[in-house]
Amino acid sequence: MINLSLLSLLLVLSSCGVAVRTTKDLDVNVVDISEGTPSPLMQEKIPKNCNFTKAFKTNIYYDYKHRAQKLSHLNSIIDSVYLGGEKEVFKSTIGFRYRSPLSIMGRMFKACGGHDYTKNKSYQSAAASALYSFSEIEKIKHLLPASISPVRLRVATTVRNIYETSEDGVLVREEKQLINNAFYNSKDKEIIFVPQGTPDYGFVPFSGIPMWEIPFVSAHEYGHHVFSHFMTNYLNDKLIKHKPRVCFDDHFEGGDQDRNVKFQDIMKSLNEGVADLFSRIVIDKKITMEGLTCLEDSRDVTSDTFANGESKILNKQSLSEFFSTRKIGQTDCLKSVNYQDPHTVGAVFANAFYKVLKEGKLDQKQMLSFLYEYLKDINSKYFQLKNLSLDKSLEDLFLMGFSKAEKAVGLSQREKCGIISQSYPSLHSYYSCKK
Ligand SMILES: [Zn+2]
User: Fold this and answer.
1) What are the DSSP calls for 227-277, one per residue?
2) Distance from residue 340's CA to the centre of ligand 1 (Å)
């Protein structure tokens, strides 16, 4: 921690309202154990005689172990790939500090046909691995929303979390480097993989498998891109909402202060659940998450339980934890479930919807069109939903998806009640099932 001088503090105070960088467009995918020391990657020597239309070899986590995959070309859903580079994520309880946006793109990448990217731990092999997953999405391009824009991919980018807070009138600034993580930045339409590394606390997550080698992760991030494509009212609303509150950005995640759950937190959870569901629908079923601690079960929409064996359920207890103003600290996924993590409530939604879709044996196209129609519906009712009480908006968001899915499938009342009793017994309309 660095205590800045009083002079800096005065400069900071005088800059109130000038310009603010916030984290509102960033969606951090996996927040556990994600700050520490990055492991170095090498720059690979690429032969000069590349044939860009030829296949190259790359690593992905496939069916319980690494397997080299052959991939023949870059794809059209990704418009550019950058290696390394830098980005800052600014988190402040003060919120009015001026910072010019820092984002350095790094070196551009084009996969070399005929090259074996499985041999080295390099920036290039990381990018080639991530591209495999996007090539899986490319295969179903005709099922993606017609006008969806291409995304930029950034691999092994140095992302610094900068925390600022005021302690006894003194500005305290702390910088941490993000590792073992990936996120989607809706403002610049980019998917960023941060470097692998050793966490300050805890263990290396996901059994040490680099995030860019896990197809679920890439597809999940692309799922956020799909969510953003439809959820224009939500994205625009965030900008409007933040304008008058520019001096008190509330995205600070560290510290011990209490929580204040807002509609935005519910939308964050929904965003996570949609991204998990999208990922499961588009990625080949043979590609599993088995052996990937925490991701396995907890984030697999086909699993009814979290990694610690507890059911994915919204009942009195889990909801009171989600809405609680008392913050729960970091938890170990193998021991307990943290309902304050947006991925958790999202996982319950995704699991419940998937249960319905699976009952109807819907194909990939039907499942995706369910998802798109659901998102369009939420977007059109966004402002109504936002004005409801929090527990009512959570219920309505669930019901909108659940009803859409069960209508597409044609479930009986008994089947509907069965799934709701497993997933959301606190849902008010479920009480009619008990009569
Ligand atoms: Zn996510």
Assistant:
1) HHHH-HHHHHHHHHHHSTTTT-------SSPPP---HHHHHHHHHHHHHHH
2) 14
- pLDDT tier, 365 (very low <50, low <70, confident <90, very high otherwise): very high
As to burial, measured by CB atoms within 10 angstroms (0-12 exposed, 13-18 middle, 19+ buried), residue 286 is exposed
**Whole-number Cα distances in Å, 266 to 125, 146, 174, 253, 415:** 37, 27, 29, 16, 26
Map residue 335 onto helix, strand or coil. Answer: coil
Cβ-Cβ contacts under 8 Å for 168 (sequence gap 6 or more): none
How close is the Cα of 346 to the center of ligand 1, in Å?
10
In eight-state DSSP terms, residue 208 is G
Exposure class string for 401-415: b at 16+ Cβ within 10 A, else e: bbebbbebbebeeee
Cβ atoms of 183 and 173 within 8 Å: the answer is no
For residue 117, report the distance from its CA to the centre of ligand 1, in Å: 27
Ligand 1 centroid distance, CA of 29 (Å): 4
**Residue positions counted in the chain:** 435
Helices (H), 143-247: 215-230, 232-242
Contact 261, 323 (CB under 8 A): yes
Residues 297-301 have a mean pLDDT of: 86
pLDDT band for position 357 (cuts 50, 70, 90): very high
